[in-house]
From TrEMBL:
Binding note for cofactor: Binds 1 FAD per subunit.
NCBIfam families for the chain: proto_IX_ox
Pathway: Porphyrin-containing compound metabolism; protoporphyrin-IX biosynthesis; protoporphyrin-IX from protoporphyrinogen-IX: step 1/1
Subcellular location: Mitochondrion inner membrane
Originating species: Tribolium castaneum
Gene name for this UniProt entry: AUGUSTUS-3.0.2_00508
InterPro entries according to UniProt: Amino_oxidase, FAD/NAD-bd_sf, Protoporphyrinogen_oxidase, Zeta_carotene_desat/Oxidored
Signal peptide span: none
Protein name, UniProt field: Protoporphyrinogen oxidase
Single GO MF descriptor: oxygen-dependent protoporphyrinogen oxidase activity
Job description of the protein: Catalyzes the 6-electron oxidation of protoporphyrinogen-IX to form protoporphyrin-IX.
GO biological process, one term: heme biosynthetic process
E.C. code: 1.3.3.4
All copies of domain Amine oxidase, residue ranges: 10-466
Length: 467
């Protein structure tokens, strides 16, 4: 009998790829509710060559997960499509925050830490040294805002961490688990009493066995890539994955929504919207955890409850803007708005600084809403309202008066999972339930082990490696 993968986003496509890589003769069906694969990853090339990214735009090359993605890219013959941003580039060095009504550059070097820079009241190094004095608090988990506030002070929590959380999961740092971004630092405090002591101890600890790197990862290291994308945008990756799995015999069923999942003696039965059913001996769930919870509700209410609790997703309005004029005075990756400003805008990406296209003017992407989406826009905002808000705030924040000649507005409903306090514990309950009840189900995708492209690909590889 076959394996079924539910969901044709990056997680589902990667799961299908690795299933076929590890056991080429395995029959695999992928079920996708929409008419395309790729999920939130969508790039559209404009007439003048500019790329409008609706979802992700950059990938990190570092770490084991980064190396794994580069290996996948190499296996898909995409290495020559990569466009890297190297460490000396302004888009790698310069990240801005908008606080107290103006833009500020965040320190990007060691010397920057010793300088007093607005909006901080003293050099950042003094905030960081606060960690040496702060007492350990024994906790299982806490919000990243509380952890940073305790160890480094409220200015670091407000001006550094809160916007960073917006720039990664569009979330509220006061609710997101410290383990989402800073598990290691949190564990240093719990084990050694302070982050600094933990850091020092780890310097003398035995280093782990180095990962064997593929050619592209070695190139990334020697050329000092900071982040990268592809010539035709991030969608290059899911398109290549789809083509690869189709040519390896994976059957993709488009426009096919699963409405219920039933497990029965080592089998999984999927009820589909059109009253059809599909049976398989193993299901890989690559859809958001709360949606999966709904599908399992009738037969496994306890598991469904944990899955629904795991991720409260937030919505983001993504507005791509194309201007004739070149008006960016300080080239950078972009800017993040400090949540204390209470603006509808989370951040602005300077696409034309990151990946310049000749004679293209200025390309910006404005991301809005997130955790505060409904507060600012209600449940069903009109696209023209979102466009007006985006343009008005770009003019105000960047202090300019240009109007875009081309734009695209997309509302990404419930697109980003929020790893709230207790996420890890809840995940243990979910895995425990699946193990104890011997359910032939594995999980992957952005709801579980990280929201970045690298995390999603690695979660898919891990989900299928023992099947
Ligand atoms: C605005 C934004 C910006 C981002 N920027 C970056 C970035 O710069 N760098 C980075 O690394 N990551 C970034 N990410 C994160 C990354 O894009 C996502 O985490 C990743 O694409 C999620 O993939 P997925 O397969 O887990 O989920 P999805 O993309 O949500 O895929 C799930 C699929 O399942 C389908 N589905 C759902 N329910 C059903 C059902 N009942 N039956 C059948 N099919 C179903 C959906 O249609 C969808 O195609 C960004 C994400 C967003 C939203
Ligand atoms: C303003 C909103 C958002 C911006 N990007 C995202 C949102 C919600 C989504 C996002 N960005 C990144 C990731 C992946 C994280 C990972 O684990 O790989 C996701 C889901 C990448 C990223 N963006 C910023 C940082 C610091 C990172 C981590 C990797 C890196 O160092 O590049 C900061 C940032 N995001 C946005 C802006 C405007 C910005 C900084 C100025 C937009």
């Amino acid at each position: 009998m076959s394996k079924v993968i539910l969901g044709g986003g990056l997680g589902g496509l990667s799961a299908a790829y690795y299933l076929k890589k590890f056991s080429p003769n395995q029959a695999v069906t992928l079920i996708e509710s929409s008419s395309r694969t790729g999920g939130w990853i969508k790039s559209s090339v404009q007439e003048n060559g500019a790329i409008f990214e609706q979802g992700p735009r950059t990938i990190r090359p570092r770490g084991d997960a980064g190396a794994n993605t580069l290996q996948l890219i190499e296996e898909l013959n995409l290495s020559d499509q990569i466009v890297p941003i190297t460490s000396g580039h302004p888009a790698a060095k310069n990240r801005l925050i908008y606080a107290n009504g103006s833009l500020h550059l965040l320190p990007s070097s060691l010397t920057g830490l010793f300088r007093k820079q607005e909006p901080f009241s003293k050099p950042l190094i003094l905030h960081l040294l606060n960690d040496l004095k702060a007492r350990r608090k024994e906790v299982k988990d806490e919000s990243i805002y509380d952890f940073i506030g305790r160890r480094f002070g409220s200015e670091v929590a407000d001006y550094l961490i809160s916007p960073l959380i917006c720039g990664i999961c569009a979330g509220n740092a006061k609710e997101i688990s410290v383990k989402f971004l800073m598990k290691q630092l949190f564990e240093y405090e719990q084990k050694h009493g302070s982050v600094s002591k933990g850091l020092l101890t780890s310097l003398f600890a035995k280093s782990k066995r180095p990962t064997v790197l593929c050619e592209t990862a070695l190139r990334a290291r020697s050329e000092k890539w900071n982040i990268y994308s592809f010539k035709n945008g991030c969608e290059t990756l899911p398109i290549a994955l789809r083509n690869n799995i189709v040519s390896n015999g994976v059957n993709i069923k488009f426009n096919t929504e699963c409405t219920e999942i039933i497990t029965d003696k080592g089998q999984v039965i999927l009820n589909l919207f059109n009253n059809e059913t599909i049976k398989c001996d193993h299901l890989v769930g690559a859809i958001p955890a709360n949606v999966l919870g709904r599908l399992l509700q009738k037969q496994h209410p306890e598991l469904a409850q944990c899955l629904k609790k795991l991720t409260k997703n937030v919505s983001v309005a993504v507005v791509n803007l194309l201007f004739k004029e070149n008006f960016i005075k300080n080239p950078a990756f972009g800017l993040l708005v400090v949540p204390k400003e209470q603006l509808p805008v989370l951040g602005v990406i300077y696409d034309s600084c990151c990946f310049p296209v000749e004679n293209c003017g200025t390309v910006l992407t404005v991301m809005m809403g997130g955790y505060w989406f409904e507060e600012h826009f209600g449940t069903n905002p009109q696209e023209n309202v979102l466009l007006d808000v985006a343009v008005k705030h770009v003019k105000r924040i960047l202090n300019c008066d240009h109007d875009p000649f081309n734009y695209k507005v997309n509302i990404l409903k419930q697109c980003l999972p929020q790893y709230v306090v207790g996420h890890d514990e809840n995940l243990d309950l979910i895995n425990g339930y699946i193990r104890t009840h011997k359910l032939p189900i594995s999980l992957c995708g952005a709801s579980y082990y990280g929201v970045g492209i690298n995390d999603v690909i690695l979660s898919a590889k891990n989900a299928v490696k023992d099947l």
